[in-house]
Write a structure and sequence with these properties.
alpha+beta, 14 helices, 45% helix, Aminopeptidase, 3 domains, D-Maltodextrin-Binding Protein, domain 2, 19 strands
């Protein structure tokens, strides 16, 4: 290399570093600004500091390039640290933006249907196929199975009648939702054992509520629905977790109201027999949400749907949560003690799902679910956990859905970052008494249900309305 080439290279390297610094600052700044999450006071202060550092390093590179090797190495280390911070900031901002949009309600729910026949006398010629009379997606389901030739359609008023026709009355087959078949498996195992699943298809149902708006600073109610599945959260299934979170951003107060999964309620838009609240999830999250609106007499315009996957991923990414337990009990390989328990994702899920260890089974399970939510809120309230924010976003992306519009999610996060005010959380659970009753989904077959306690419902209504006071 000639002396002239060496001189040109010596000029080229500092100029290139300076250009990379400025590009990194510009990209990171735009990414953070575009998410609209960071409060203005932090945004402008951060831009000022980051811009000043970028300008200073660029100035040194262009006009004060060190000749001493150690000073040059120190400058390069500072530059590398700045570039790393800028790249991480850009990644964090893009993850946040992607999360806010990816977590929106899917345009459609995925509903799995099965074709069943008699296990003792399996059929292959489906000249007649039964279906549930009130299922609004019957035509889609029949089309998805692509029967050739087209069978005669026979309606049944409820599940037991439909399946008895297949098992005992010679009807070749029936189609029903996979979640409905799980109800049969849980509540009528003898009938379930006489069935054989021939084929499974998936159909889609247009979601009624796509996005909803929250007025800045105004209180609102969020329905938290936990479905009993892993994987795709858009899969329609029973809603085992039914918690209303009344949130008042001005007072920083939250009231959590748990409704037991076996609560015996009138499903929205139905007449006649009541049903377990958990069965409402089979007909879509809107059925669950509107049924709770009817029960408590308040509008519920927002919801978030989670499943087992989203809960375990979130907690594991947070490094576990500290859950308070009023009892000593064990579930499988997990032991829980009275007081604080540091739980990972799987242990927290087992804690939230257990009911057989308690005399008041389902009621205690609902309270434990609230305790897990409280622990997550407490963990996210800690400013130190902002360092793992990007990992949290990446872990839960695609694992839950919410009807809250992206700009509202951003404004809620921005408001919390603005003052980092701790939230006061109050947990309530409505009560009831155990009973055996026929249900809308299973007809005359008696199932365990919880008869609502009107006094506890009235107390929950009062707490919800008080928190919603402007």
């Amino acid at each position: 290399m000639t002396a002239q080439q060496h001189t040109q290279l010596a000029r080229y390297i500092p100029a290139s570093i300076s250009l990379i610094l400025l590009i990194t600052f510009a990209v990171a700044s735009y990414s953070v600004w575009h998410t609209a999450i960071l409060p203005a006071k932090y945004l402008w202060l951060g831009l000022l500091l980051a811009g000043s550092v970028a300008a200073l390093l660029s100035y040194i590179c262009l006009w004060r390039w060190p000749k001493h090797l150690m000073r040059r190495g120190f400058l390069l280390l500072l530059t590398l640290a700045y570039l790393t911070a800028g790249a991480y900031t850009t990644l964090l901002a893009r993850s946040a933006a992607g999360f806010l949009h990816a977590s929106q309600v899917s345009p459609s729910d995925s509903i799995s249907y099965v074709l069943v026949t008699s296990a003792a006398k399996p059929q292959s010629d489906f000249s007649e196929v039964g279906f549930m009379r009130d299922d609004t997606l019957t035509d889609k389901a029949f089309g998805a199975f692509m029967f050739k030739p087209a069978p005669m359609h026979t309606a049944a008023p409820e599940l037991t009648t439909l399946l008895v026709r297949v098992v005992d009355e010679g009807m070749p087959g029936a189609i029903l939702r996979s979640a409905q078949l799980r109800i049969v498996q849980d509540n009528n195992p003898s009938l379930f054992s006489e069935l054989r699943v021939i084929r499974t298809v998936t159909v889609t149902q247009q979601a009624a509520l796509q996005t909803s708006q929250i007025k800045p600073g105004e209180p609102f109610v969020l329905y938290i629905s936990g479905i009993d599945t892993y994987g795709d959260v858009s899969t329609v299934s029973r809603s085992d977790v039914n918690i209303l979170a009344a949130v008042n951003p001005r007072t920083h107060k939250i009231v959590l109201v748990n409704t037991p999964r076996d609560y015996y309620v009138q499903l929205h838009g139905t007449t006649g027999l009541r049903d377990k609240l958990t069965h409402a999830g089979i007909y879509g999250i809107d059925m669950s949400r509107q049924t709770l609106e009817d029960l408590y007499g308040i509008p519920i315009d927002h919801y978030v749907r989670i499943n087992f996957t989203s809960l375990t991923r979130t907690i594991d990414t947070l490094g576990g949560v500290d859950v308070q337990s009023p009892y000593d009990f064990s579930v499988g390989s997990y032991d829980y003690t009275t007081g604080s328990n540091h739980l990972g994702g799987d242990a927290a899920l087992a804690f939230a799902r257990e009911r057989h260890s308690f005399e008041e089974g389902d009621r205690v399970r609902g309270q434990n679910q609230q305790r897990v939510i409280e622990a997550i809120i407490a963990k996210l309230n800690n400013p130190r956990n902002l360092l793992s924010f990007q990992q949290v976003l990446g872990s839960v992306e695609g694992s839950f859905e919410t009807s809250i519009a992206p700009e509202n999610s951003a404004s809620l996060i921005r408001a919390q970052l603005n003052d980092m005010h701790a939230w006061s959380v109050q947990s309530l659970s409505v009560n009831g008494t155990g009973d055996s009753q026929p249900t809308y989904s299973m007809g005359d077959l008696l199932l365990y249900v919880m008869q609502p306690n009107e006094s506890s419902i009235a107390n929950a209504q009062t707490a919800l309305r008080e928190i919603l006071q402007p």
